[in-house]
Design goal:
It is a single chain. It is built from two helices and eleven strands. The chain is of the alpha+beta class. Strand 2 and strand 3 form a beta hairpin. 23% of the residues are buried. The structure holds dinuclear copper ion. Dinuclear copper ion is lined by residues 76, 102, 137, 139-141, 145, 148.
C-alpha cells in the first residue's frame, strides 16, 4: 500500500503525540501519586451530620493503626476548622458535603478532591513536610466561597498523638485564643 509522504508524517506525528499524552498521564499518576478520588460510597446529605460515618469529624485511628481524617463541607466552612495529622504517614480522607458541591484542596500538597452532596469522596495521601497547611475551597459554592478554609497541621511522626475527642479539640482552642 502506498502512503503519501505527508500522510505518513501526520500519522507518525499523531502517534508520537498520543504517546506523549499517555506518558504525562502515567507519570502524574504513578510518579506524583495523583490518583482520582473515589466517589463510590453514597450518603443522605441532609442526614450526614447524624450519620455514624460523619457524626464525629476530625482525625481518628482505626484498629489496624491507619489514620483517617473525616471532614464535612458546608457553606461556608470545613469541619473541623483545624486538625493535626502525623507526617510521613498515609492519611485517608473521607469527605462529604451537606449542601452544594465544594472543592477540597490542601494547598501545597497533592490532597485534593471534589466534594459532592450525596457522595463520600475518599483519597489517601501522605505529607512528608511538617508544618501548617491551608485547606481552601476551589469550587465556587456561593457568596462566602473565598472565606471557606480550614487549617491542617502536619506534626512530626514522633510528636503526634491520636486525638481523644477530635470534635471538641478545635473550637476549644479557638476560645482560649479569644480570651487572651
Ligand atoms: Cu465551598 Cu467554595
Amino acid at each position: 500500500m502506498k502512503v503519501d509522504i505527508y500522510e505518513r508524517i501526520w500519522m507518525w506525528g499523531v502517534t508520537v503525540m498520543l504517546a506523549v499524552f499517555f506518558a504525562t498521564t502515567a507519570i502524574a499518576a504513578l510518579g506524583h501519586q495523583l490518583q482520582p478520588p473515589s466517589h463510590v460510597e453514597t450518603i443522605d446529605p441532609k442526614a450526614a451530620m447524624s450519620d455514624p460515618r460523619f457524626r464525629t469529624q476530625g482525625v481518628s485511628v482505626d484498629p489496624e493503626g491507619k489514620v483517617h481524617a473525616t471532614i464535612v463541607a458546608l457553606m461556608f466552612a470545613w469541619l473541623p476548622p483545624e486538625f493535626a495529622v502525623p507526617a510521613e504517614t498515609p492519611v485517608t480522607f473521607h469527605l462529604t458535603s451537606i449542601d452544594v458541591i465544594h472543592g477540597f484542596q490542601i494547598v501545597r500538597s497533592n490532597g485534593q478532591s471534589m466534594v459532592i452532596p450525596g457522595y463520600i469522596s475518599q483519597f489517601t495521601t501522605q505529607f512528608n513536610l511538617p508544618g501548617e497547611y491551608l485547606i481552601a475551597c476551589n469550587e465556587y459554592c456561593g457568596i462566602g466561597h473565598h472565606g471557606m478554609m480550614s487549617k491542617m497541621r502536619v506534626v512530626p511522626k514522633a510528636q503526634w498523638k491520636e486525638p481523644g475527642t477530635p470534635v471538641a479539640a478545635a473550637p476549644e482552642s479557638e476560645e482560649i485564643h479569644h480570651d487572651r
